[in-house]
Design the sequence.
């Protein structure tokens, strides 16, 4: 199980440049930024992002923060490291919020804000830490990598009944060797247009650092796919793992995946996998000098709606 | 994670004696006994046993079996190894059912009954195997041991958000050393009257084979209490662990526990723990010659309502 690492502290704020898509940010004089590390069981949420009429992680988190800090018309300027879809879990997620001096006063004599937020939160969201962010910290743009894990049970797996909510079950046989061959094609810098819901003006170029695939004999022989990338666009993890599963069950070949990737075109892509087996397990931030470069690059390359 | 062992096959049926409390058993000529190994997430069940108007594991299991075998007025003569309370989980549970020749015919050409039952079951119950029981098998009376695990997070633990449903969280510090000292007093054969909901005419003498207590550094430093006993009476595991927690948090001493055990009297006992952290993780059956002795002993000692 994951023990979320204490976050690496960041020293400098990325300098803005004119090319950047500027995020709407109500961090002005008098506001201070806070970093919140947390996790959730995504089963009963319509995803992370706030949507009127739906139970989302963000809306529940904002509600709990309002118990301590009072009503916020702008959701405390919250920005998230990884916008997870409906049903996707997060064992380690990060947001930042910006608090005014009068909001900060409400922390009062009990500085254990994490515990107080947890008391106000529903049980399926748990805050690990609530800390003043170092200068320059941006939960989304400063992040240098995201790590996801997808757990899939095939015919030869045994699923612990206490893991049913967290494992995708497929009534097929998966060939892990083929899956690994297809995964090799995905690693590196590519235009993942074939595996992203594209947004106007946003690049679909991403770097995947690795994709590790194994069966876990200590966990019922479940297939675990771990993906680490600088960032992933919308739907990308489930689209990539969908392609891997198509190959592993014999519905596509490794070169089909390779061709699809080169096409950079979403039309005719492989089936996206259901969210249940997927969990964001780590968000990483660089140290010191690398931060400015990281944030600048991220802001330039990506639209506001992606992670 | 547990991989339920293939059950040990039993060769002889325990001979009945006049002293026994005879179970109501509709196993008559023409009926054959089947063994079902399964597990469940107990969160959303009002316990194992059928109760009108409540969602229980037994009622859901019977409903699913009826899809294949047709209506049964007597719940297929189902008997369970460990009657779990509301909210308690089972990673490995066993029942037997008795099927008539005409019911057995319905198995037809698809012998994979486990898969068919799973299709009819809600997701929070999963059947691992459905097999013809060997002569003499009784899910409850033939069982030679039950193993339970209780997981408790204290102040120094980190709970993975995907484990929230399966871990009891306490905002105190637990002293594992004290817990172990108190547990030593419980191991062996005792009258557990102080830790059981007594039933008229039923013995509260049980044998606990071991109680292992550790913090699991790979699982957020959660305290795991594993108890193996021949059998446990109603509420006993939660009452014993409640006493251990009372000692571990400094509310009682080891001799308090010892005195309470000797009193064999439930009055003034320690607080019973909530069910969330508790899971039945294994039911064991003896081989061959030991079976008859085991079943006879169990039937003589225990009432119908206990396990």
Sequence:
């Amino acid at each position: 199980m994951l023990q979320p690492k204490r976050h690496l502290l960041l020293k400098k704020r990325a300098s803005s440049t004119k090319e950047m898509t500027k995020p709407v940010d109500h961090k002005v004089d008098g506001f201070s930024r806070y970093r919140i590390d947390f996790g959730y069981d995504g089963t009963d949420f319509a995803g992370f992002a706030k949507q009127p009429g739906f139970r989302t992680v963000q809306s529940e988190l904002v509600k709990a923060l309002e118990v301590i800090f009072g009503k916020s018309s702008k959701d405390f300027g919250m920005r998230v490291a990884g916008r997870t879809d409906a049903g996707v879990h997060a064992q380690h997620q990060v947001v930042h919020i910006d608090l005014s001096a009068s909001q900060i006063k409400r922390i009062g004599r009990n500085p254990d804000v994490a515990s107080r937020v947890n008391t106000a939160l529903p049980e399926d969201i748990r805050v690990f830490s609530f800390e003043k962010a170092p200068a320059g910290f941006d939960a989304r743009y400063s992040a240098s990598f995201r790590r996801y894990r997808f757990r899939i049970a095939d015919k030869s797996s045994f699923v612990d009944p206490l893991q049913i909510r967290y494992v995708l079950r497929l009534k097929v046989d998966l060939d892990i060797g083929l899956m690994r061959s297809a995964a090799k094609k995905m690693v590196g810098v590519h235009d993942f247009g074939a595996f992203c819901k594209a947004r106007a003006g946003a690049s679909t170029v991403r770097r995947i650092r690795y994709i590790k695939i194994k069966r876990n004999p200590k966990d019922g022989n479940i297939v675990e796919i771990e993906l680490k990338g600088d960032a992933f666009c919308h739907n990308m993890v489930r689209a990539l793992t969908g392609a891997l599963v198509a190959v592993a069950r014999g519905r596509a070949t490794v070169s089909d995946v390779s061709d699809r990737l080169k096409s950079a075109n979403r039309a005719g892509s492989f089936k996206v996998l259901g969210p249940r087996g997927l969990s964001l397990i780590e968000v990483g931030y660089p140290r010191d000098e690398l931060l400015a470069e990281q944030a600048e690059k991220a802001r330039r390359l990506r639209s506001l709606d992606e992670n």
The CA atoms of residues 40 and 123 of chain A lie 9 Å apart.
